[in-house]
Amino acid sequence: MNEDFPTGDGGSADDVPNQNTPDRGTTDRGTPDQPGADQEAVWSDDTGSRLYELEFPAPEVTGDDGDGPVLVHALEGFADAGHAVALAAEHLRDALDSELVATFSGDELIDYRSRRPTMQFSGEQFTGVEMPLLQLHAIRDNRGRPFLLLSGVEPDLRWEQFVDAVRRLSDHFEVATAVGLNAIPMAVPHTRPSTITAHGNAAELLGDLPRWGTPMKVPASASMLLELRLGDRGYRTAGLSVHVPHYLSQSSYPAAAAILVQSLATATGLDLPVTALENAAAKVRTQIDAEVSGNDEVESVVTALEAQYDTYAAAQSETQSLLARDESMPSGDELGAELERFLAAQTGDDRPDDGESGARG
């Protein structure tokens, strides 16, 4: 998959720095147009818009067997219920050896008015700002096998250009397989194990994971479009969607993140740590149980969700969807809204302690 690589001036892959070749025009000192060895190389897409900055020199991402790395894309936003995708990505970056490969331009891809950055204010003046980040990292698993992790905020703008840029980066680093991580709110209880639904064109990666089995139209995400376009270009693709209790979709839910990491390891053969996420999940489970216990109304809602979950599990039908509503009980939206109101009233906000410190390995 060695196609022309975007350089912003009509150049080809031969003009682009790789792991052994310095950037075209590089000098020891460097200039704004000719970066030196201690500077970042700035690459652009074919339109001339600067979509990302590439670290220079690029990290080594070829495995000992000569194979290219797996690309894992974990974008926060639309399909990140319970912040499970963000927690999983943060855990992988923090728990394993990680090197920055590229940073995408928020100015080109993010609508700051719909996703406003956070400013720090001292009481007298502004002291800092936290801008949304979208980055590509090279990470090595517990056995030293490299993979690429695309993580951060989902782009608001230029999806096709963003996807094409990721595809060209993937071509350059000889990626053959791409796996997406997603988290979706479902009418499931927190008292049952989190489950995964899989999709993609690489059946050998998905194994026995359940599929949706029913054609449907769904609102798109950048991650979905990336999976589609990469599949069209001959990549092996897989998507892992973890089910998050609807009433916890706005809270950090590390149990779902742990299942994502476990399923990613199973699908790709990567040796990935998960203990820290499991420990964080146990702490959050204890907190949620304490908040629910003693409230008869809320307990009855959880019991109803458990009954629905157990009925579905007993049926062992891949064509039956937990998205379907049971007409004998309130809808998932109604159940979720009721529990969200209760949990927010107990904690003072909508985010219980997520055990984040434990999720950082």
From TrEMBL:
Q: What species is this protein from?
A: Williamsia sterculiae
Keyword Endoplasmic reticulum among UniProt keywords: no
Spell out the residue ranges making up region: Disordered. Answer: 1-45
Keywords carried by this UniProt record: Ligase
The GO terms describing molecular function are: ligase activity
Q: Which domain of life is it from?
A: Bacteria
UniProt cross-references to InterPro entries, sorted A to Z: Proteasome_assmbl_chaperone_2 (IPR019151), PSMG2_sf (IPR038389), Rv2714-like (IPR008492)
Protein's name in the database: Predicted ATP-dependent carboligase, ATP-grasp superfamily
